[in-house]
Design a protein that fits this description.
Strand content: 15-25%
Shape: globular
Structural class: alpha/beta
Radius of gyration: 22 Å
Number of helices: 13
Largest sheet: 5 strands, mixed
Mean pLDDT: 91
Strand order of the largest sheet: 6-5-4-7-11
Order of helices and strands: HEHHEEEEEHEEEEHEHEEEHHHHEHHEH
Number of strands: 16
Distance between the termini: 17 Å
């Protein structure tokens, strides 16, 4: 959604606004003709021509003949963003693994690296040191250096200054990670909760593309949620993340959660709970869990009965989420992307039957992530691009 300049705005400001809006459109939607851009942005063709010509002269876009032509006559040229015209560094910090990537305009990953975060090097300073060490080699062979950094963290993060209030699964508290990175890498840093950024990425580039009201449910060691409402990422007081759905109590008197409560949803559907349902060690690596789920899927519908109790808890929690937030779509991410398709279909059906809100909406859809493990990384990139693209 783009804003419209108000009356009395200076011509240079209007031009800058239109230029940023056009580039944002290309960044999200990809190659487009001038005519399509004019329609989408509500601008006349001469204005679009001036904007495209200016961006092309600056090396930010180029125009090409489409690779596939349809119909007779001369095809319209496509306007394409040049990925290396503006590059950001995206960082995704998880309990067991951290990833970083250089992402260009259009969401193209230009280079990436990752490493395991073991118990011995999970301290904030250790993770920060690894990021700083990997930064130089990652950008060494690229034509363009990053101009901003976006970081995804599983915890309560203050967007304004990159301060991690609490990341319980990482055992972090009051960590000024944003300030450390900005000071060391000499770049502006933007940080957000991992599930929130996963929701943003799925909304812009994944399974929730074009959907206006979405809940993204992240299942890693813990369970979190990100919310898109009326096309915008929803935040709470002070800009803080609001989707700590994993700590919604669904089973009073159940297992003790690290948050201090008993019977939290993530104690029934998180990584350890899924391991218990599969009959494997609770400390099994993610790869082993995924392999077990795939083997179960190959055995047919009858084998899925092993996950009946897990499925019931997943359905119960999702029903609560749907009733509370009224989404048209729920996207299951991370470990949940490996759930057998018949199980996901059953969850969707039962949520539709039990949820008053889902019935009113004509049936909330439940799908798995289209971006998989890259969702939070791409969400972090979008967080950085928010300010980068507005400066064009």
């Amino acid at each position: 959604m783009t804003s419209t300049p108000t009356a009395g705005t200076r011509p240079d400001d209007v031009r800058r606004h239109n230029r940023a809006a056009l580039l944002r459109r290309l960044h999200i939607d990809g190659p487009s003709t001038r005519a399509s851009l004019a329609t989408a942005l509500g601008l006349n063709r001469s204005t679009i021509k001036a904007l495209v010509d200016g961006l092309a002269e600056d090396g930010v876009v180029e125009e090409r003949v489409p690779a596939q032509r349809s119909g007779a006559g001369r095809p319209s040229l496509l306007v394409l963003p040049q990925p290396q015209a503006a590059v950001v560094l995206a960082i995704d910090i998880r309990v067991e693994r951290a990833s970083m990537a250089l992402v260009g305009i259009g969401g193209q990953i230009l280079a990436r690296d990752s490493w395991k975060v073991r118990d011995g090097n999970r301290e904030p300073v250790e993770v920060f040191t690894k990021i700083a060490d990997y930064f130089g080699p990652l950008i060494a062979e690229q034509e363009a250096a990053p101009v901003a950094i976006g970081v995804s963290v599983p915890g309560v993060v203050r967007h304004s200054d990159g301060f991690v209030h609490e990341a319980p699964n990482l055992h972090w508290a009051d960590v000024p990670l944003g300030a450390w990175l900005s000071r060391t890498l000499k770049l502006p840093v933007h940080m957000g909760n991992d599930a929130e950024l996963g929701a943003v990425a799925e909304h812009l580039r994944g399974a929730a593309r074009r959907a206006e009201d979405v809940v993204y449910i992240s299942a890693d060691v813990g369970v979190g949620g990100g919310v898109i409402s009326n096309g915008l990422s929803l935040r709470g007081a002070g800009g803080h993340h609001i989707g700590e759905v994993g700590h919604m109590v669904v089973r009073p008197g159940g297992k003790r959660c690290y948050c201090g409560a008993q019977g939290c949803w993530e104690t029934e559907v998180g990584e350890r709970a899924l391991c218990r349902a599969l009959g494997i060690d609770e400390d099994s690596p993610v790869g082993a869990i995924v392999a077990e789920l795939r083997a179960l899927s190959a055995k047919g519908p009858e084998a899925l009965s092993r996950l009946d109790e897990f499925t019931e808890w997943l359905t119960l929690g999702l029903g609560n989420v749907v009733n509370l937030l009224c989404p048209q779509l729920v996207v299951l991410g991370d470990l949940f992307t490996a759930l057998p398709a018949p199980l996901v279909a059953r969850v969707e059906q039962v949520v539709r039957e039990r949820s008053l809100v889902s019935r009113a909406l004509g049936g909330t859809r439940v799908v798995t992530s289209a971006l998989g493990s890259d969702a939070k990384l791409l969400g972090a990139a979008e967080l950085a691009f928010e300010t980068v693209l507005s400066d064009w």
